[in-house]
Amino acid sequence: MRRANQGNRGGLGIRLVIILAIIVIILAGGLFFYVHGISATDPGNQEKVSITVEPGTGVMQILNQLDEAGLVENKFCGKVYVKLASPDKIQANTYVLSKDMTLTEIFSAMDSGDPAYISQSKFTIIEGATIPQAAEAIADESGLSQKAIMKKWSDTAYLKKLIEKYWFLTDDLLNKDLKYPLEGYLYPETYFLSEKDPDIEKITETILDKMDEELTPIKGDIKSKLNMSVHQFLSFASVVERESLFEADRPKIAGVFKNRLDQDMALQSDITVLYALDRTGVKVSIKETQVDSKYNTYKYKGLPVGPICAVPRRTMDDCLNYEPSDYLFFFATEKGEVLYSKTYEEHQKIVKENKWY
Q1: Residue 19 lies inside a defined structural domain of this protein
Q2: Is 340 within a domain?
Q3: Three-state SS for 82?
Q4: CATH number assigned to the domain comprising residue 58
Q5: pTM (2 decimals)?
Q6: Is 87 in contact with 116 (CB distance < 8 Å)?
Q7: Same domain for 144 and 166?
Q8: Does residue 217 share a domain with residue 173?
Q9: Number of other CB atoms surrounding residue 155 within 10 Å
Q10: Structural domain includes residue 164
Q11: Element (H, E) at 2
Q12: What tens digit of pLDDT does each residue of 212-270 get?
């Protein structure tokens, strides 16, 4: 009997050890799951994400905002963290965060009101904007002068530094025929300034980082689909951007310009002439089409010497996926309808019947 009791106690001990081991494994697994769940969603990605906390917003609502913005790795773990950490000092504000921040870092920054993560102001580079317009938008919010910004963006030494840093910037930027070297390379977007005294170099790199993010996924397509360099592609896409009044027209207009390039025809784009003349509008005289500028696609065949405006990703995609056709001409009516034609004679007839300016 004594031996049997000893055997029972021995078996019980083994079972307890196994149970404890299972509990430890479960706890370790749960801890690992939890730690992973509140980790950064994309380590190394410093893309800025703006979160605006309105007055009276609860912490669970803030967690939902963070989740919708792609800043929460696991929402269940996020809820657990919020319950445990109980962040209760978050002030209504606009916070500039990034995807390489853990949930702990995010709530710590918001709960402490760290000035480094609070947006001081924001500026927007609109789609189709030119360099002077982009500089003006930044100047209005940053306290920097438009003149100083433009001067920096034209500084050869600074441009060479940028060319070394970004794969899509090349010596094309140093061409003396360019009006503004960085034209077309400043991605149209709303950007947030977290510093009280922002530096134009840091602002510029933030914008170029966004352009890098948009261009990198289509790098191969630019070469395989259009056989263009990035500089040529942005020049092409910028013309399509300014020539297209409506989204539905862009792929077809891109196809028309692609046809003209393939047939070694001049693009004859009025908006390139207007850019050369520093003008806006739609009317271009015959005399103006003779202006001696490498942007003038009446006088010089092929693409303009450089981009003429900021281009959004959707226009880039429309250019890569242009609509094949036999059209070589198009004309926009006063109501915005675009009429296409295959021959110059057809085009002239359309213009005569529909010209409104």
Answers
A1: no
A2: no
A3: helix
A4: 3.30.1490.480
A5: 0.76
A6: no
A7: yes
A8: yes
A9: 13
A10: yes
A11: helix 2-37
A12: 999 999 999 999 999 999 999 999 999 999 999 888 999 999 999 999 999 999 999 99
Residues whose CB falls within 8 Å of the CB of residue 155, separated by 6 or more in sequence, listed in order: none
Nearest alpha carbon to residue 53 among 81, 90, 99 = 90
User: Do 80 and 221 belong to one domain?
Assistant: no
Residues 163 and 105 in one domain: no
Are 224 and 284 in the same domain? yes
Q: Encoding tokens for residue 24?
A: 């430890």
Q: pLDDT tens digits, residue range 55-94?
A: 888 888 988 999 998 998 888 888 888 888 777 788 788 8
Query: How much is the pLDDT for 137?
Result: 96
For helices 250-262 and 313-320, angle between their N-to-C axes, nearest 10 degrees:
50
Residue 109 has a CB neighbour count (10 Å cut-off) of 19
Cα distance between residue 279 and residue 272, in whole Å: 10
In the block, tokens 């908006």 appear at 271
Residues in the chain: 357
Range of the domain at 145: 120-325
Q: Half-sphere exposure (CA, 13 Å, Cβ side) for 37? A: 15
48-53 and 190-193 beta bridge pairing? unpaired
